[in-house]
Amino acid sequence: MAEECIFCNIVNGKTDTQFLYRDDRVVAFADIHPHAPVHDLIVPFQHIRSVNDLQSLDQELMAHMVMTGRELARQRGVDQSGYKLLFNVEWGGGQRIFHIHMHLLGGWDKEK
Ligand SMILES: [Zn+2]
């Protein structure tokens, strides 16, 4: 199943996706269907289906994703105007790719 996962393919460099950030645990790239002026995704290498599937061992990874989102917000210039970091969980929660990822949304009021 993981072999057919689009996010596994992306994080493993099997697509031409441009990474905004990359380290040994996560990558970040722009959402191809943006819902905000800045809409990026922070995706771990580890294939975890959703927040529902997190285990105690994953706590550090989740904290790392949040800290990466914060840093990316700064890089994208939306840290002062404000932004959202959010997880959609399962279909009813708006999740469409079942490889855990966090959305960074912002940039609505950058000019103020
Ligand atoms: Zn995956």
Structure description:
The chain is of the alpha+beta class and about 110 residues long. The protein has one domain: HIT-like (HIT family, subunit A), CATH 3.30.428.10. It is built from 2 helices and 5 strands. Strands 1-2-3-5-4 form a 5-stranded antiparallel beta sheet, with helices on one face. A hairpin with a 3-residue loop joins β1 and β2. The chain is globular and about 40 Å long. The site of zinc ion has 6 residues, from α1.
List keywords for this structure.
112 residues; alpha+beta; HIT family, subunit A; five-stranded antiparallel β-sheet; binds zinc ion
Helices and strands in order, then pairings?
Elements: H1 6-11, E1 21-22, E2 26-30, E3 38-44, H2 59-75, E4 83-86, E5 102-106
Antiparallel strand pairs: 1-2, 2-3, 3-5, 4-5
The chain binds zinc ion (ZN).
Summary?
With 112 residues, the chain is an alpha+beta fold. The chain is 21% helix and 21% strand.
Order of strands, widest sheet: 1-2-3-5-4
Tally of DSSP β-strands: 5
Indicate the CATH class. Alpha Beta
Helix content range of the residues, please?
10-25%
Cα radius of gyration in angstroms: 14 Å
Biggest beta-sheet profile: 5 strands, antiparallel
Strand content: 15-25%
The name CATH uses for the topology is HIT family, subunit A
Shape: globular
Compute the number of helices.
2
- Cα distance spanning the termini: 46 Å
The unreliable regions are: none
The ligands bound in this entry are: zinc ion
Secondary-structure content class: alpha+beta
